[in-house]
Structure formats: structure tokens, C-alpha cells
Amino acid sequence: MLPEITPTQLKQRLEQGEDLQLIDVREPEEWEICNLGGTLVPLEELSNRVEEFDKLKTSVLICHHGFRSAQALAYLQHRHGFMNLLNLKGGVHAWAQEVDPTFPVY
Fold it and tell me: What are the Rhodanese domain coordinates in residue numbering (predicted)?
């Protein structure tokens, strides 16, 4: 089963000051419309940028609806041994619906 975090859970953890690595695997054009911060690493660049991330830190993978981030999670877990990974369930679209209705959607 894919380890997930809901937008509400992510918001709570961020508000509590938890040191999470946010990895957004969308395209730069999508990032410009809206983002939750963190690091933008388009999915096709992930394999070349793995060394930028701390394997020991909890990482939340983010995309538009949660599909690309699920692919990224599986890749990091199976190919590079990352263990502390969470997929943002429903992506930034769900964040706009559940957490922040003023958050831009596309």
C-alpha cells in the first residue's frame, strides 16, 4: 500500500513545525500557478537529482492529483532505498478543496 498523507494532515504537520522535505514533481508551468513550497523536481528530472534529498528525512511527494507523485515515491523507494516517503493524497487539487479554498486550481 502506498504511504499517503492527506492535505489536512500535511497542513497540521507543517503548522506544528515538522521539518518535512516537500518534493513537487510537476512541471515548472504548473508550479508557477500554485505551489506549497519545497523543491520543484519535474518527474523526468528526478533520477538525475536524487542526491539533493536526505534519505533520512520525511519527504512528501506532491503533484496535481497524486499520480505522478505516486510514481516518484515508488521510484525513490525501490531504486534508491528511501523509507520515509509520503504521497500527498489528491495532490495540490485536494489541498485547494480541503485546506485552502483560495489556493489556485487548474
Answer: 16-104
Q: Domain residue spans in the chain?
A: 4-98
Q: Which CATH superfamily is domain 4-98 in?
A: Rhodanese-like domain (3.40.250.10)
Are 34 and 104 in contact by the 8 Å Cβ rule? The answer is yes
- Which amino acid is present at 2? L
Across the strands, what pairs with 56?
A: none
- Give the cell for residue 80: 534508491
Q: Which helix (H) or strand (E) holds 88?
A: strand 85-88
Residues involved in catalysis = 63
Contact 63, 24 (CB under 8 A): yes
- Going by pLDDT thresholds of 50, 70 and 90, the confidence category of residue 45 is very high
* 86-104 per-position pLDDT tens digit: 999 999 999 999 999 999 9
